[in-house]
Amino acid sequence: MTNALEKFEPRVDRMQRVALFVGGFSLLGCALWGWLLGPDVAKQAFQSYLFSYIYWFSIPLGCMALLMMHHLTGGWWGYPIRRLLEAGTRTCLVMAALFIPVLLGINKLYPWAQWATDKPADPNLHFKVMYLTKNFFVLRSVIYFAIWLTIVYFLNKWSAEQDATGNTRLASILEAFSAPGLILWGIAVTYSAIDWVMSIEPLWFSTIYGFLFMIVEALVAMAFVIFVLRLLSATEPMKNVVTASQFNDLGNLMLAFVMLWAYMSFSQFLIIWAGNLKDEIPWYMARAFGGWGTLAVFLIVMHFAVPFLLLLQRGVKRRLHLLSIVSGMLVVLTLVDVYWLVVPAFQSKRSAPRLHPSDFFAVIGIGGIWVGTYIWQLKKMPLLPLHDPRFEGALQHEHGD
Questions:
Q1: Which domain holds residue 306?
Q2: How many domains does the chain have?
Q3: Which of 380, 383, 381, 371 is nearest to 94 (CA)?
Q4: Which residues, at least 6 apart from 247, have a Cβ–Cβ distance to it below 8 Å?
Q5: What SS3 state is found at 61?
Q6: Which of 33, 282, 289, 302 is the most buried (most CB within 10 A)?
């Protein structure tokens, strides 16, 4: 089976080149913006880069989790999107390289980076001094990427071997690997969220924070692959496999992640607000009033209420163009959600959201590089698994009914 993208190779190649060119040019613009206009603007450029990086890296991390969920459950819902998920996971190596600017900007991003020379006065921070050091931060980040890249390597290696050899045992191997893989993935995501985002405000902490980022990643990855699947659903071999019932199942999963996002977000808010502790409340005080409060209400309505009501409708989930609109909306709104989570930590309390040119440069720059890499990876393998015994049986059953 050849890759269906070969039929559209000139157009796809052009999209890939444009994405890479726009991404590279925008990243250069972000770097020049910070370098030429002084240290304050340079600090803002690093802050924009971190928020943009967290968003774009959420998609491949979510793809990794969904892929392992599919291997564990063996559900029919995962077969049309399996190659789309695998292509997403293979962008992790590029994202590891794109993490280097974050390491270069540690002093401008994290207040604890100065603790080596200026010990924190607050006694609540004294026990964090040993953990929040630059060398240990770098080491932990290397460990996170080592875990993720190892998972990506074996998931894709065995999937390619299954295509090449038809070995039926590989499905069981992928299933057995995915259980501990999901545990390691969750640990790495939790600690990376604490290190890369939560530690911007070292006094604040939340035990739900890591799980909230897991849900964000799963939601944006599911929305993204549904949107891509809609674009490919009219091509061979997708149009012979993808039916309204498959999109209905994927829509149900996306609905579950939307509800989980709302549940975890509200649970964190309720626990912290009810506790009313002076070290925890400021995090919400900075995000619940003024312009940030307006943005929070916007997220409640558009990131939860509207997609929740739409995804309850069977007609929306079974009409591919409608479901793709909802999924595309969630991809964009997750960017707003990550912005709301990350950026207030860098601004003065109760200030309004302020967009900077570096925000646009960083989002478009990292996004262009990532999308170009994703297209390149998507072209490398057939769009459907070739010899997965569960897939072949399910396909026969689907078309035999």
A1: 4-114+129-389
A2: 1
A3: 371
A4: 226, 229, 317, 318, 320, 323
A5: helix
A6: 33
